[in-house]
Input
Amino acid sequence: MNQKTYWNSASETKEFTTLLDINTLKEHLKPEALIIDYGCGYGRTLDSLWQQGYKNTIGYDFSEGMIQRGKKTFPHLNLRVSKNNKIPLESNSADMVILFAVLTCIIDDKTQTSLINEIERVLKPGGILYINDFLLNTDERNKKRYNAFYNKYGTYGVFELPEGAVLRHHDKSYIEKLTKPFQTESSTAITFKTMNGHHSNGFVYLGKKLG
Output
């Protein structure tokens, strides 16, 4: 099963759990700010922003099923299907781009780097990149599956779920390298509850585009 097929099939049932820190956003953004949620799923995070008065938002996701669910659940949101990790906006146009549990769904370094470069392009100078995602774990369940799939994928931290998804947990030093184009405002280690009910190491990152 390819990943697009998986997420389309899961679009009506999966509930995402990464949390939005609205107080942190309010420190950086005015109500009229243009906020892009890339990998928005069914729009849960954008609806939280809408309820707080942030209504100049656009959500992109490569899963047509997720976007269809979002349009039914949150018809007031501007949700669009994305293609090829591109954000169809002018350069220097967005005030913030949100990546919530998106890197975990992109297992190769090259595609992740391409996406970060695209985000840098669309952000205004001084614009904010806001990431929530997953770090490597050291418990036996996770180490076993990291090792089981290392030979297949060539990256420690990549693993398959029984239902078909292929996901990645990240080394902290790799995230620091990936976000090097941005000036780090904060980076905090936290524990997330995963979409399947487990707990995982994670991080919350805010970076600013220079220039």
